[in-house]
């Protein structure tokens, strides 16, 4: 708390009282701590792949590349780490765009069947590699007034997670239902599930239940933070039902029309 005080005198210059202003700066302090944590996290996340790329390149240049197999293995690691860096930077840019005060959604009439047809090819390959059956339920032609590019991002991030955190041969389902004022998106998996205590934290930037697992799947730790932002700028709601070892259900509720525009 910040305190500013001043005495009050009457007309004869006698002390009559005092005013005390108490500023609650807990919120500001919290923001400051969050900002510092974020910068530390970003630096660490950027440094890890760069250290790996530098290390493997050096080893190759110091003679390891004479062995064809080592050369191949190391180049693959360097390639993976470069992709990780590129994904991370892409996600950071997306988050920073969404967080700008002047950020504006580009709303058009979007059709979910069309959107799903654009999203599935991106996701399908990943599902097939793990033998995961990916199903979709769209009751009818559902349309809404929203930012198509961003809604697509919601679907991609939730489906990618569902596939990443579901063991081989599992099931992932995407369902879209029309609920009068809202469109309800549900992504269900029968994967590893999320501990009840971790659920409120998974939307934080860089929070992961299992760091090693997230890294293995190429995650940046920013996917759900991005989803939550997009949902919020659309005045929607996101929630999760999950049971450890049984699976997770992510619900996104989006109002069909922008209530703030006339
Ligand atoms: P990441 O890149 O690590 O997947 P996200 O922000 O997308 O980052 O998710 C944050 C964390 O939430 C993940 O690391 C994982 O621990 C957990 N998580 C997200 N989706 C699921 C899911 N469908 N099943 C189990 N855990 C999940």
TrEMBL record:
Top-tier EC class: transferase
Protein localization: Cell membrane
Residue runs in coiled coils: none
Entry's EC annotation: 2.7.13.3
Cellular component, GO annotation: plasma membrane
Molecular function terms, GO-annotated: ATP binding; phosphoprotein phosphatase activity; phosphorelay sensor kinase activity
Record flagged with keyword Nucleotide-binding: yes
One GO process term, biological-process aspect: regulation of DNA-templated transcription
Keywords, in A-Z order: ATP-binding, Cell membrane, Kinase, Membrane, Nucleotide-binding, Phosphoprotein, Transferase, Transmembrane, Transmembrane helix, Two-component regulatory system
Residue ranges of domain Histidine kinase in the record: 41-258
Protein species of origin: Lentibacillus cibarius
Domain of life of the native organism: Bacteria
Chemical reaction(s) catalysed: ATP + protein L-histidine = ADP + protein N-phospho-L-histidine
Stated name of the protein: histidine kinase
């Amino acid at each position: 708390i910040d305190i500013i005080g001043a005495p009050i005198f009457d007309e004869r210059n006698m002390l009559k009282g005092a005013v005390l202003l108490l500023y609650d700066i807990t919120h500001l302090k919290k923001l400051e701590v969050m900002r510092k944590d974020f910068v530390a996290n970003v630096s660490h996340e950027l440094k890890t792949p760069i250290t790996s790329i530098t290390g493997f390149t050096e080893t190759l240049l110091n003679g390891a590349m004479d062995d064809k197999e080592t050369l191949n293995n190391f180049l693959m690691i360097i390639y993976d780490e470069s992709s990780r860096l590129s994904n991370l930077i892409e996600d950071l840019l997306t988050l920073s765009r969404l967080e700008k005060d002047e950020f504006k959604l580009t709303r058009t009439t979007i059709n979910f069947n069309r959107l799903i047809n654009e999203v599935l090819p991106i996701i399908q390959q990943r599902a097939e590699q793990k033998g995961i059956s990916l199903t979709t339920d769209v009751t009818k032609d559902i349309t809404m007034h929203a930012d198509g590019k961003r809604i697509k991002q919601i679907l991609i991030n939730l489906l990618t997670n569902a596939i990443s955190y579901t063991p081989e041969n599992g099931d992932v389902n995407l369902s879209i239902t029309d609920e009068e004022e809202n469109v309800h998106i549900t992504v269900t998996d029968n994967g590893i599930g999320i501990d009840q205590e971790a659920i409120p934290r998974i939307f934080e930037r860089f929070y992961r239940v299992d760091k090693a697992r997230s890294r293995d799947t190429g995650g940046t730790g920013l996917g759900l933070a991005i989803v939550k932002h997009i949902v919020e700028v659309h005045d929607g709601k996101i929630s999760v039902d999950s049971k450890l070892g049984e699976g997770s259900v992510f619900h996104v509720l989006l109002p069909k029309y922008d209530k703030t525009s006339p």
